Amino acid sequence: MNNVKITQLPSGIKVVSEKIFQVKSFSLGFWFDVGSRDENEQNNGISHFLEHMFFKGTRKRSAKKIAEDIESLGGYLNAFTSKEHTCFYGRGLAEHIDQTFEVLADMIQNSVFNSREIEKESRVVIDELYDIEDSPDELIFDKFESNVFTGNSLGMPIIGTEKNLKSFIQKDLKKFVRDNYTFDKLYIVASGNVSHNQLLRLVDKYVTKDMKSASIRKRDLVLQPSADLFVEKETQQVHYIIGKTTYGSKDKKRIAVNILSHILGEGSSSRLFQKIREENGIAYQVNSFLNSFYDISTFGIYLSTNEKSVYKAQNLIFDEINKIKSKKVSEPELNRAKEYLIGNMLMSLESTTNRMLRIAQSMIYFNKVKTVEETIRKIHTVRSDDIRELSNEIFDTSNKFENSTLTRVILSPKNLLLQLVA
After folding, report:
1. CB-based contacts of 417: which residues, under 8 Å, 6+ apart?
2. Distance CA 420, CA 310 (A)
3. What percent of the chain shows pLDDT beyond 90?
4. Cβ–Cβ contacts within 10 Å for residue 225, how many?
5. How far apart are CA 103 and CA 373, in angstroms?
6. I need a surface site. Which of 29, 64, 169, 216 has the fewest CB within 10 A?
């Protein structure tokens, strides 16, 4: 990434750009290093709710005009909230970056949080919450993280609770913005046909509100032992996760965990896909996952299957775990996983939006932009012995689940839960 430039302004804002000469467009993101992890039980969901409310009108723009001012130029505006950061971003043709920048800057500085809009949008977000409740393959991941992160803000759902969503008022939103959406947590990141000097001029011209630096923030994490969790839900299938916490984004072992995850359950050639779906035909959905945060990750295996196949699937999962613990991964299989990981990363970087996302997350987590070449070199350093050692460390278990350090979350109808718990 030789075309990446980084400037930290006296205010604390980090401005990062990547010039790509062969494209005619840009992706521009205003990132705040704040998310649901920075909430408490009383205001859980406020970061995600604010993501919605920033689009609901400023002192000079209505919600409709915010959309029209971007879409009339052929552009696109959106946002997302994670547990550790919030991003407002736009895409457009290179000649329209000034307008897109100005709209985003207006939103994050001058949103009015009208009380009538708060009331309306709370109903919208509650509908979104109900959609998650109706999507067991999504809901179970929230339940899994709430279980393994019991007592920590990382365990709270990004969307919050219905009670909180109904209680938010203008004063709550303004206070949270004042305390958290500050210069020292702001990253302005662009990728595409952009000029770094132009970005700096736009910051000077349009970021005029004094968003002072915040007080020092601590993201404490104290893990507690977690037991199995059984969730009653009227579904046709049983939804099942088995997993645990492991190394976070900052840890050098995370890349090896990522490769282990690919070998076990990511892609149609993975061990679990082949064993559970192709050979035994007992699950349509089966995959491993690695969800990473700054200092910790969740790693595990998810599947959905019928009630008669749950324990068979679990036994097959443990069979594969014990194989990967006891016998070194062959060089061809290891290389396939590496190439799968590298290929997916390189193909994703054909999108300026994905490049912008990668650059921003690298800055937030590492305070630098890690090059693609650096990541590829680290992937290639992982050896078969590393995978086996890591497998034995993570899957500290025997053949029987009762002796396992892993945690299960099972989501299914009540009558089946009674059998599973028994």
Report:
1. 230, 231, 232, 410
2. 9
3. 87
4. 8
5. 35
6. 216
| Cα–Cα dist 261/154, whole Å | 22
Chain centroid to CA 280: how far? 32
278 is catalytic: no
> Tell me: the pLDDT tens digits for 264-291?
999 999 999 999 999 999 999 999 999 9
Q: How far apart are CA 249 and CA 274, in angstroms?
A: 29
- Residue 59: CB atoms within 10 Å: 9
Query: 329: left (phi > 0), else alpha (psi -120 to 50), else beta?
Result: beta
Which residues in the chain show pLDDT less than 70?
1-2, 214-216, 397-404, 415-422
How many whole angstroms separate alpha carbon 35 and alpha carbon 154? 10
pLDDT tens digits, residue range 81-114? 999 999 999 999 999 999 999 999 999 999 999 9
Q: What is the pLDDT of residue 419?
A: 56
- What domains are there in the chain, each with its CATH number? 4-206 (3.30.830.10), 229-421 (3.30.830.10)
